[in-house]
Amino acid sequence: MSEIAALGNRRRIFLMRHGSVTYFDRAGNPYPPDAVPLNEQGRAQAEAAGRAFAQENIRFDRVIVSGLPRTLETAGCVLAATRQEIALEEWPELREIRGGKLSDIPDDGLREAFTGAFEGVVPEERKFLAGESIGELMDRVHPAIDRLRSDATWDTVLMVLHGGINRAILSYALTGQRLFLGNLAQTAGCINALDVGPAALDWVVRFVNYAPPLPLHIETRNTTMEAMLEQYLKSRMGAE
């Protein structure tokens, strides 16, 4: 009887990626990654996500962001659209995977540095842009998610985070293991829905990478990192 009573007691995590930002100027030179705000398209994506939540009258008990400006601004747009006033919780351990110094990467290693961390089942020792490794990323993301799940005071939470972080969370939910599935696309401004129960492996992934402005993803077939590599190559070639 107790097992039957436990059914249906799952809680909902709405996991978003922040809206679009401009990582490079027109010449291909990078902006400081921890300071970039949403661009015009990113604000439109965040507002569209907010309208999607408002249409279904979704109410959040908590809103968690990484603390980087692009997550704060995205969450603010969603809350404005849903007419909710909720203090944003900044969890710095959920900041995006950290890259190294781009100028230190040789030309023949650029593609691997930009895209290798998001291809297939990624080895833990693989580094992102010659910086943080996938293993180091999971070391900080998994405990944070376990801590959130252990708190029984919420029913519905909104998390506005980053492409790499979201992949780590989705991989954890899908496999229940210490694996990183790099091919899980996370379009700027997208929404994922995950339900969690009391048991450690009680995850239900309801949907992934729903992007309200263009839900059929007809605008591109490139990944975010492929687009970033193309932009960066402009400055690398211009400096030669």
Topology readout:
Layout: H1 2-6, E1 11-17, H2 40-55, E2 62-65, H3 69-82, E3 88-90, H4 110-115, H5 134-150, E4 156-161, H6 163-175, E5 191-196, E6 203-210, H7 224-238
Parallel strand pairs: 1-4, 2-3, 2-4
Antiparallel strand pairs: 1-5, 5-6
Description of the structure:
The chain is α/β, with parallel strands linked by helices. The chain has one domain: Phosphoglycerate mutase-like (Rossmann fold). It has seven helices and six strands, in the order αβαβαβααβαββα. It has helices at 2-6, 40-55, 69-82, 110-115, 134-150, 163-175, 224-238; strands spanning 11-17, 62-65, 88-90, 156-161, 191-196, 203-210. The protein has a six-stranded mixed sheet. Helix 2 runs parallel beside helix 3 (69-82) and helix 5 crosses helix 6 (163-175). It is globular and about 55 Å long. The N and C termini lie far apart (71 Å). The model is unreliable at 1-5 (pLDDT under 50).
Summarize this structure as a short list of keywords or feature phrases.
240 residues; alpha/beta; Rossmann fold; single chain
Strand order within the widest beta sheet = 3-2-4-1-5-6
How helical, in percent, are the residues? 25-40%
Report how far the terminal alpha carbons are from each other.
Answer: 71 Å
Radius of gyration over C-alpha positions, nearest whole angstrom: 18 Å
Structural class: alpha/beta
How many beta-strand segments? 6
The stretches of 5 or more residues where confidence is low (pLDDT under 50) are 1-5
Q: In percent, how much strand structure appears in the residues? A: 5-15%
- Summed over residues and divided by their number, the pLDDT gives a mean of 92
- Tell me the major beta sheet: 6 strands, mixed
The total domain count is 1
CATH fold naming: Rossmann fold
Oligomeric state of the chains present here:
single chain
Indicate the CATH architecture: 3-Layer(aba) Sandwich
* Shape verdict: globular
What is the N-to-C order of secondary-structure elements (H for helix, E for strand)?
HEHEHEHHEHEEH
Broad CATH class: Alpha Beta
Number of helices: 7
The CATH homologous superfamily is named Phosphoglycerate mutase-like
